[in-house]
Each structure stands twice: as structure tokens, then as C-alpha cells.
Write a structure and sequence with these properties.
Elements: E1 17-21, H1 25-36, E2 41-45, H2 48-54, E3 62-66, H3 74-83, E4 90-94, H4 99-107, E5 112-115, H5 120-151, H6 163-180
Parallel strand pairs: 1-2, 1-3, 3-4, 4-5
């Protein structure tokens, strides 16, 4: 991992909280040091089970996890978290470049997929991008909540139970139309 960290501090990195999961402690400590230099709070976990325990007391903004770990792989950790409703960004890293692993990881909604050795600028850019996307998701959710609240006294025009159901129904219908038109 290259150690060039000049000029990368950003609003999205300040006060961010990252959980770094990797069974290679030398790599984990080097990556954590690079992220900490940018003002990021970093916790490390040696495996997926330790990560699940850490998440009970540490609210990470982003999880950065190795793919190949003993007991539970990084993609299995992600699947377990998504099944439980966890929606925060998740970055997978690996020393291997098997296309099936990459395809499966992308299917699980990873924010990024990094191949080791990882240059510090690439790691930082991936974390920054994940934080930016999470920030946008939270803004969007807040705007939708405000819209639903503002519209709640008025019944939706389609006769459904709520504006939220009406808007989701219309969005699903539009996606289906676009897929059929391809």
C-alpha cells in the first residue's frame, strides 16, 4: 500500500467512522493508519464474527472488508448484514481477482470492489465515494419523509392507502416500462 495522503482531506471524510475487517493484521493496521490521518475514526476486526460484535457498539458509516477470511467471507458478512436491514455502504477488498467473486459481490450491492495491494489514494477515494453516496441517500430519505408528511392529509389520487404506497407503486411501474422497452 502506497503511503501518499496529501491533499485528500474532504468534508465527507471528516468525522467519518469506518469498520475495517481483515484477517491480515499488518494490512489492516496500515490501512487504518492511512484513514486515521484524514480524521477518520477507524475500528478494526480480524474476522466477520468480530465485525458483527463490533457493530453492536460502533456505528460505522462505511464497512471496508476483505473478501477471503476464515469462518465467514466478506461477501457472506455483507449478505448477513443486508438480510438484517443494514443499508450502509460496504466496500469489499481482495488479493484475488476471480470474476465470479466480483460478479457476486456486485450483486450484493457493494459500494466498491478493490484489489490488493491497494494504493492509499484508491482506498481513500473509495471511502470518500461511499460516504458521498450515503450522504445523498440520507438526504433523499429525509426529503421523501417530508413529502409523505406534507401529503398525508390529502388522499392519493390512485386510491391506495398512502402517498408512500402510491409513489412506490408508480416508481415500480415506471421501472417495468423501461425494462420492457429495451
Amino acid at each position: 500500500m502506497t503511503n501518499s495522503t496529501t491533499g485528500w482531506a474532504s468534508l465527507f471524510l471528516l468525522n467519518a467512522r469506518i469498520l475495517l475487517v481483515d484477517d491480515d493484521q499488518d494490512f489492516a493496521m496500515a490501512a487504518a493508519d492511512i484513514l486515521r490521518k484524514g480524521g477518520i475514526e477507524v475500528r478494526t476486526a480480524q474476522d466477520a464474527n468480530a465485525a458483527l460484535v463490533a457493530l453492536q457498539e460502533f456505528e460505522a458509516d462505511v464497512i471496508v472488508s476483505d473478501l477471503a477470511m476464515p469462518l465467514m467471507r466478506g461477501d457472506q458478512l455483507l449478505a448477513e448484514l443486508r438480510k438484517g436491514g443494514y443499508r450502509k455502504p460496504f466496500i469489499l477488498m481482495t488479493g484475488f481477482t476471480e470474476m465470479t467473486d466480483i460478479a457476486e459481490a456486485m450483486h450484493l450491492d457493494v459500494s466498491d470492489y478493490l484489489v490488493k495491494p491497494i494504493d492509499s489514494k484508491i482506498l481513500i477515494a473509495a471511502v470518500q465515494s461511499a460516504l458521498r453516496a450515503e450522504h445523498q441517500r440520507l438526504i433523499h430519505e429525509e426529503q421523501l419523509a417530508q413529502l409523505y408528511q406534507a401529503l398525508s392529509p390529502v388522499p392519493p389520487p390512485d386510491g391506495s392507502g398512502s402517498w408512500e404506497e402510491a409513489i412506490k407503486g408508480r416508481a415500480i411501474a415506471n421501472v417495468r416500462k423501461r425494462r420492457l422497452s429495451r
